[in-house]
Automatic annotation (TrEMBL):
Keywords assigned: Transferase
Keyword Chaperone: no
Protein name: Asp-tRNAAsn/Glu-tRNAGln amidotransferase A subunit
A GO molecular-function descriptor: transferase activity
Pfam families: Amidase (PF01425)
Span of domain Amidase: 25-418
InterPro entries listed in its UniProt record: Amidase, Amidase_dom, AS_sf
PANTHER family in alphabetical order: AMIDASE DOMAIN-CONTAINING PROTEIN, TRANSAMIDASE
């Protein structure tokens, strides 16, 4: 099954100029949901969704009648991962815990979307509390495969063409991996650039918010609205690219390694200077540290809720809580401190290798079959641990299932990553089938 994702940047231009009316777009996307949701199941059901959105779109158009002053996301519907609080909508977080126990004030990321003129399309389905217990969401590229997780619905909604922009979160690989599986663009900014208030935490030391769009231009437009202190840069000359090798890359499948080789070859053909670098010779220690940190902070986050509603948690989630309770205070402190060492080392490798960006697979390989397993986030883990910005762009396929190229920049270089990302996206767009 193939869908055409909606491209955010040209859509914004048509809405702000008045070539397309917000209420018309609402009807178009609701028609799209009517056609796709029975198969994809990306959003929580909402009786009266179309009528609500039509009212909000009509009111927005009346408030912003002058095209010259319309805000940057005027009339754009956005899907919001269901761990993020939205006024007027409960937060369920993919859980059976009563919404009244976990719903809170609206998140800053949602307030920024509203101020920018966006409309809330609906709550995107998520694994339970953004861990591994999956919803019934399917991959629009192949309904027999997972869309990834935990931002399952956010990725699937964009890939299905039901929404041009969706918000997700990443604590290990929950933006980059689903985007790679679904053949779209996922962007996770540097740690802290999108505020996390109003979001149910997983592990606050490594939680990030991120975006899903059809292309890099859309990701850049969304980032300019959502990220603190955004200052666009001129991409200038082509960046020097470093393909990450060694023990880290060995975690990928044969298909994942073939995919990164094919993407590197395409970039070389496009005139990029592509080099090979070894970044993580101690990747197992990084993986273990991140797992201990995530489990311990998750257990702390859920201490009261699990005491009250423990029988409503999925077994996998309970196992993580129990694992986290075994992490000692000193081990947790060390794991938190180790993040900054990994961040520093990434910057040192970039500088010493004379590269600007690092390349790796967006996931170990294509999306696994079935929807009971959201896939392994291991290829995303060290970058999330370090809090550096990461972008994934479609780069080839295996048996019709997309592969994603993960592009990473040093901490704080988000603007450069997205400025350069558009050229990289174009260079790898025709990689094709990877064997």
């Amino acid at each position: 099954m193939h869908y055409d994702p909606q491209r955010l940047a040209p859509l914004v231009r048509s809405l702000r100029r008045g070539d397309r009316r917000p209420v018309t777009l609402v009807d178009d996307l609701c028609d799209r949901l009517d056609a796709t949701e029975a198969d994809v199941d990306a959003l929580r059901s909402e009786p009266g969704r179309r009528e609500r959105l039509r009212r909000e779109a009509t009111a927005l158009a009346a408030r912003e009648a002058d095209p010259a002053s319309r805000p940057p996301l005027f009339g754009v519907p956005v899907a919001i991962k269901d761990i993020i609080h939205v006024d007027g909508h409960t937060t369920e977080a993919g859980s059976s815990v009563p919404p009244s126990a976990i719903t809170g004030p609206e998140a800053t990321v949602v307030s920024r979307l509203r101020e920018a003129g966006a409309l809330h399309l609906g709550k995107a389905r998520t694994t339970e509390f953004a861990y591994f217990d999956p919803p019934a969401t399917c991959n629009p590229c192949d309904l027999d495969h997972t869309p990834g997780g935990s931002s399952s619905g956010s990725a699937a909604a964009v890939a299905a063409g039901s929404v041009p922009l969706a918000i997700g979160s990443q604590t290990i690989g929950s933006v980059v991996r689903p985007a790679a599986f679904c053949g779209i663009v996922g962007f996770k900014p540097s740690y802290g650039r999108i505020p996390l208030d109003g979001v149910i935490p997983f592990a606050p030391s490594v939680d990030h918010l991120g975006t899903f769009t059809a292309d890099v231009a859309g990701a850049a437009h969304a980032a300019s609205v959502l990220c603190d202190g955004w200052s666009p840069v001129d991409p200038g000359e082509q960046p020097v690219l470093g393909v990450v090798e060694g023990a880290y890359l060995e975690q990928a499948t044969e298909a994942g390694r073939a995919g990164i080789d094919a993407a590197a070859a395409a970039l070389d053909d496009a005139g990029y200077d592509v080099r090979r670098v070894d970044v993580f010779d101690d990747i197992e220690a990084i993986n273990e540290s991140h797992q201990a940190l995530s489990a311990a902070e998750f257990a702390l986050t859920h201490a009261e809720w699990h005491t009250e509603y423990g029988d409503r948690y999925a077994p996998e989630t309970v196992e993580l809580i129990e694992e986290g309770r075994q992490v000692g205070v000193d081990e947790l402190s060390d794991a938190r401190a180790a993040r900054f060492d990994v961040r520093r080392r990434i910057g040192e490798v970039v500088a010493s290798s004379d590269v600007d960006l690092l390349l790796s697979p967006g996931a170990p390989g294509p999306a696994p079959s079935g929807i009971d397993d959201t896939g392994d986030p291991i290829m995303n883990l060290p970058w999330t641990n370090a809090g550096v910005p990461a972008l994934t762009v479609p780069a080839g396929e295996v048996d019709g299932l997309p592969l994603g190229l993960q592009v990473v920049a040093p901490f704080g270089a988000d603007e450069s990553l997205l400025a350069w990302g558009a050229g990289i996206e174009t260079a790898v767009a025709d990689v094709g089938s990877v064997s």
